Amino acid sequence: MKNGYHYTESGLTNVWLANGFTLRKTKYGQGVSIHNVDGLHRALARMLAQKPRLTGAEVRFLRKEMGMSQRGLGELLGVTDQAVALWERKGRLPRTADRLLRLIYVEHDKGNAPIAGFIRRLNELDQQDHERIIAEEARGGWKTRLAA
Fold first, then answer.
1. Are 41 and 65 within 8 A, CB to CB?
2. What are φ and ψ of residue 26, in 5° steps?
3. pTM of the full predicted structure?
4. Under 8 Å CB-to-CB from 127, ≥6 apart: which residues?
5. Would you say 61 and 10 are in contact if contact means Cβ atoms under 8 Å apart?
6. How do residues 1-40 score in pLDDT, each as one tens digit?
7. How does strand 141-147 pair with strand 132-138?
8. Which domains does the chain show, CATH number per domain?
9. What is the 3-state secondary structure of the chain?
10. Which of 107, 102, 106 lies closest to 118 in space, CA to CA?
C-alpha cells in the first residue's frame, strides 16, 4: 500500500493503516504516532471476530484486548494455559474454541460481563466430582442439589 503504514506493533502482520497516523523524524530515525490506538484496536478486534477462523496471532490479539492472561482464557474455555499458548504459537485451535472465543469477544465488546461469569462457573462445576443428585420435596415444588 503506497503511503500507508504497516502496523506490526499490534502483533498482527497483516494490518496496514491508510491514514490515522503521523510520521515524525526523531534523533533515532523515523517514528510513528498512531491516532486513537484504543479505537484502532477495537476496530481490528471487531473485524477479527467476524472472520471464519482465527490465526494464532489473532487469538493472542483478542485475548490481550480482553485483558486476559493465557491462564484466564484457558479457564474460560475449559482448557489449560498450555493449550492456549500452543494455539497462539501454532495457530491451530479447535473450531469450537475458535467460535467461542469470537463470541466471548463480541459480548465483551458489548459490555456483557454475565456471559464470562457464566462460563467461569461452568468451568468450576466441571472440576468438581458430583456422584449424586439429591431431590427434596418442599413447599412450592421440588428442590435439587448436587452432592459428592
1. yes
2. -125, 175
3. 0.75
4. none
5. yes
6. 567 899 999 999 999 999 999 999 999 998 999 999 999 9
7. antiparallel
8. 1-35 (no CATH), 37-131 (1.10.260)
9. CCCCEECCCCCCCCCEECCCEEEEEECCEEEEEECCHHHHHHHHHHHHHCCCCCCHHHHHHHHHHCCCCHHHHHHHHCCCHHHHHHHHHHCCCCHHHHHHHHHHHHHHHHCCHHHHHHHHHHHHHHCCCCCEEEEEEECCEEEEEEEC
10. 107
pLDDT in tens, 93-125: 999 999 999 999 998 888 887 876 776 666 666
Q: Which residue has the cell 500500500?
A: 1
- Side chain identity at residue 91, one-letter code: G
Helix 113-126 and helix 95-110, axial crossing angle in degrees, nearest 10: 140
